[in-house]
Structure formats: structure tokens, C-alpha cells
Model the fold of this input.
Amino acid sequence: MQARLTVTRGRAAPHAALFAFLVSFLLLSVGVGLADMRRDKLTLVTATGEHTFEIEIAETPEEKARGLMFRRSLADNAGMLFPYGPPAQEATMWMRNTYISLDMVFIRDDGVVHRIEHGTEPFSERVISSEGPVSAVLELKAGIASRIGLKAGDRAIHASFKAPPSKR
Done:
């Protein structure tokens, strides 16, 4: 999230800008004044079974920009979903201001896992790409994807994704 600063003339301007930046940073880091994200459940279906997660959904541009920044922990059964919706598109993420190493799961609009970026580096500004069109990104605590045996081709079940075609 970026703060907009007003430029003023005189000696107070640098101090006012610094004060505004520090207040914005503190508010973001403790979550003061920020609305809670919508919560839901998402299930990942792998060869090892069904694994349900309590997720937060980053829907607005502000929520997507903030993501899991400044958080110090994430439960093993928790995650954050970044839905981009149809049409599917190339998605890019980064770890700026993120303390927690994450597994990033790139998911197509039909709920099929396209790609997984395992164990991202905290605070890195390296761009992590979906490497193809997706409609959402699911962030989990690093190591969870491997622990549940999640692989490309597995399925995510959530209202954000189209239902799989019925078998006849």
C-alpha cells in the first residue's frame, strides 16, 4: 500500500512527510483502521485426500496490495486467496514486507492447480509469475503444499472456481 503525501514548503515539510510515513507504516503493521477481509473455506483435493483451509479473501485492490504483509505467523490450516476472476490472466506476486515464507498456488478458473512456487523468500522483491493464465493465487504457509502432496493438476474447490464438468 502506498501513502499519498502532500508537499508543503518550509522546514516542516520533511518532518511532516516522515511522520505521515511512520503513522501509515504503524497502522498497516498492526492492522488498525483496516477492515477485516472476508473469510471462507477452501478445499484442496490431492492424492492424499481432501484438505480444508480457513482462508481470507483479498478482493479489493487494497487488500490484494496488502496481502499477508507484516504478518508474523500463519496457521497450518490457514491461507489467503487472491481471486482475479475470468478472464484468466498471467498473475505475478512478490514478498515485499512479508515475514512468512509461503507456498504460492496458482489456480486456473476451473479450479485446477496450474503451478506451485514452494517456500518463497521473505522480503524478496523478486517477481513470482504464474507462468500461464490463472484466475487466482492461494498463499499457504511454506511447506504445507508438500506436506499434503499438492501438485499441478490437483483441484481447488471454492465458489471462485467453475465446477468441474459432470461425468456421464
Notes: DSSP finds three helices and nine strands in the chain.
